[in-house]
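Provenance and format

Records in this collection were gathered into a single text stream. Each protein contributes a sequence line and a token line. The two records reproduced below are adjacent in the stream.
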Amino acid sequence: MRFLVQRVTEASVVVAGETLSAFQGPGFLVLCGIAPDDTHAQADKLCAKLLKLRVFEDEQGAMNRSVMDVSGSVILVSQFTLYADTTSGNRPGFSTAARPEVAEPLYDYCCAKLKPILGERFGTGRFGADMAIRLINDGPCTFLLEA
């Protein structure tokens, strides 16, 4: 399982003209990739790490605060292309990504773990949808978390 975490000052997800999630202020736009053999235990680990990841600046300008410390928001979006195989040829292969019937329940599990903790500061995309994602990357500051 992979979370591509982008520290942002604002983000939104739109599907067919409908805004599903949006926020302004500090937070994360997180792209979630799932492999066929990923587990709930890995999801638990990544969700916990995401909430504790200290990449927001403190008063001295050091990356020493978590998204929880800054009352930040999180949007979690499923993205199977995080498991694209680009080692040969010019067209990515996606056989290393989980099929939707495996990935969607695990993505939903991650959402169910984060929503009670973040409340109104948590948003999602729509699994399998063609999404327009807008963000202003802060830094830029992007991290790959894997479990």
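Adjacent record:
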Amino acid sequence: MKEKIDPVFLYEITSVAIQGLLYPFGAKDRELESVGPGRSRPVILIHGYGANRGCLYPLRWYLRARGFDRVFGFNFGSAQSIEEIAELLGKFVEEIRKCCDVGKQTVDLVAHSLGGLVARVYLQELGGARRVDRCITLATPHYGTYSSYWTPTALGRQMRPESDFMARLNRPDKRAPGVRFTSLWADRDLMVLPRENAIYREGEDIPINGIGHAGLLLHPQTLRHVLERLRSGQDIPSTRIERTAQLAIGVLSKTRSLLRTKKTPDATQE
């Protein structure tokens, strides 16, 4: 008798394959062009270890379809430390602010895995809290991960739970005042160990059940939660895609209602 394949494993492998296919498209940085004021706060997406901005393309496309007209992916290349990447992020944020002509307006950050630690260094140690309204982390090892012992690199050593970096980043006096934090974490994550270390205790946390580290990026619940929190506090007009989808859903709902009415026997008839 054949054993059934674990659907979580299948979803994770499929997610890794999709992100692998997108990798070549995210390897090359594009020159930023002036886009001016838009309908939404600028959103900057930060990838994780061993990846590039290509793995966040599905989230970017989803946000664009839902009315976010200024969504940018940040690549950090072959930087050797989280602090070095955070400095690069700071420069990128300033470039985005300039090309979007934001003035005093803030930006939002959405970061996967290692990218969440980069975002926190920028916010807590480099003055980024003045520039950012909301930071959403996805499967970020906020308090370290024992899986990093399998990664004998400088970045891997920083992500170990007992590292000096983790002790410094999570000191009680290290905060990012004014920034709203949300941490989404996967209950079947094999990269953040223990999994609860993906919960940042200074903000809200949202578990996504039955999903792994890579699958979290493509899960419908993840997309919905990110969208809802990025929309908080700003009114974004619906896009043509949204209006078409809402019309289609309305037509389907009406059709199903009519079909139910026809199938229901008339109680007045003998």
